[in-house]
Backbone:
């Protein structure tokens, strides 16, 4: 059975995602974090009050609620994030970026930007703009 061109494209995109993940994680390992941890710190750093509900954080970084909990536990142990009860509802669990997490995030952002430039260097700027529009269309 022949694979459709749409399926082949998705396989290529999956392979690209794996390459990006591997390359970015290797670069960020110098800061002691993975790409997913970087994305968590990025979301928290940009959030109002630098904190988010756990469920909103999970959705923002593409994890399940249990997946984000598994990710956050070691991050909390090493002082990158802290957990808080909601001010209005103690059943609501908030996650906040800790001072050490802010430092790691800002330092690793330089590495992330440099690695991103290296990864995208083979693509002309106008093609990057077109690719960005296409990716945004797929993410909707």
Residues:
């Amino acid at each position: 059975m022949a694979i459709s061109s749409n399926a082949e494209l998705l396989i290529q995109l999956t392979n690209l995602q794996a390459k990006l993940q591997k390359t970015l994680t290797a670069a960020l390992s110098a800061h002691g974090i993975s790409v997913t941890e970087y994305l968590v710190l990025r979301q928290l750093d940009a959030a109002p009050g630098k904190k988010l509900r756990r469920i909103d954080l999970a959705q923002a970084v593409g994890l399940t609620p249990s997946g984000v909990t598994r990710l956050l536990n070691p991050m909390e142990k090493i002082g990158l994030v802290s957990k808080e009860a909601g001010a209005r509802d103690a059943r609501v669990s908030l996650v906040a970026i800790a001072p050490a997490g802010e430092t790691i995030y800002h330092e690793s952002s330089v590495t992330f930007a440099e690695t991103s430039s290296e990864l995208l260097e083979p693509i002309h700027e106008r093609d990057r703009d077109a690719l960005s529009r296409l990716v945004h269309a797929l993410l909707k």
The longest strand covers residues 81-85. The radius of gyration is 17 Å. The beta strands are 51-53, 81-85, 93-97. The chain has six helices and three strands.
